[in-house]
Amino acid sequence: MLRAEGEPDRISPHASHGRWVNWEGRSRMADLLNEKRDALLNLSHELGRDDRGWSILGEGNASVRIDSESFLVKASGCNLGTLRKDQVVQCKSLQLLSLLDRRSATDQEVNSALLASRVSGDARKPSVEALFHAYLLSLPGVTFVGHTHAPSVNGILCSTRAREFAVKRIMPDEVVCCGSESVYIPYTDPGLKLAQVIRKATESFHKRMKLLPRVIVLQNHGIITLGGTIEAVLAAMMMAEKSAAIWLKAASIGGPVFMSKEQVNRIASRPDEVVRKRAMNI
Ligand SMILES: [Zn+2]
């Protein structure tokens, strides 16, 4: 089983030093929490940069896995670009994951479950999208998740050609940073329903492609990128937005010319691209 980056080793109690071991365990957990919170603030500030315009006001959210039991996510309604420590909430993963197995739940029930998932009762309410963050962070190798309403991406996702943006590629670097294909999610009500649809579509993508997606696009809504590092989440977001901007320009002069399946597969499997990805930490 994969262990998340930075997850502490299990500390076994020792008869004569039990108190010391417990103290050390708590101190290591506090260090880990601080380290993860700082990483999440870094990612959030990048995703919410004014000059990028990917997320304005309370749009978008971001999360980081702490261990198999909990994760940190942006609190509801906060601004990504200026996110502060007190606007980050630690949530219990299993509590939210079990909600995804329910056939349906009222808005009030989802609201109560979000509040109950907080590790600290003093924390703010987590974003309603904490539900899909809980699922995506449970996937092997996923430590960070980012979600924005990037304008060029949404220019396509709010058009009749949204699905094409998910399944086709126009440039080699789009393949390198965003993968050979993205998961496509037709418009779905945000919250529990959206998290359930994302889980189902990601599972069938994994079954068909034999790998996990780097990018999930949501019709009439926005984009999610995921990965093992902050760099991977940002690279996929940046390249998806750049590709979308080029897509829109190409659409104004006759339409984009897509790479063939063979061309996409060749880029995805080239050894020099694997080395480049490692060098970029993505
Ligand atoms: Zn959104």
Describe the overall structure.
By secondary structure, the protein is of the alpha+beta class. It has a single domain (18-279), classed as L-fuculose-1-phosphate Aldolase, CATH 3.40.225.10. It contains eleven helices and seven strands. It has helices at residues 18-47, 93-99, 107-116, 130-136, 151-157, 162-167, 172-178, 192-209, 230-251, 261-269, 271-279, and strands at 61-65, 70-74, 88-92, 144-148, 183-185, 215-218, 222-227. The chain has a seven-stranded mixed sheet with strand order 3-2-1-4-7-6-5, with helices on both faces. The model is unreliable at 1-16 (pLDDT under 50). The site of zinc ion has 5 residues, from loops.
Q: Describe the biggest sheet?
A: 7 strands, mixed
Placed side by side, the strands forming the largest sheet appear as: 3-2-1-4-7-6-5
Classified in CATH, the superfamily is Class II aldolase/adducin N-terminal domain
Instruction: Please give the count of helices.
Output: 11
Work out the strand percent. Answer: 5-15%
The secondary-structure element order is HEEEHHHEHHHEHEEHHH
What is the count of distinct domains?
1
Radius of gyration: 20 Å
Please tag this protein with its features.
single chain; 282 residues; alpha+beta; L-fuculose-1-phosphate Aldolase; 7 strands; binds zinc ion
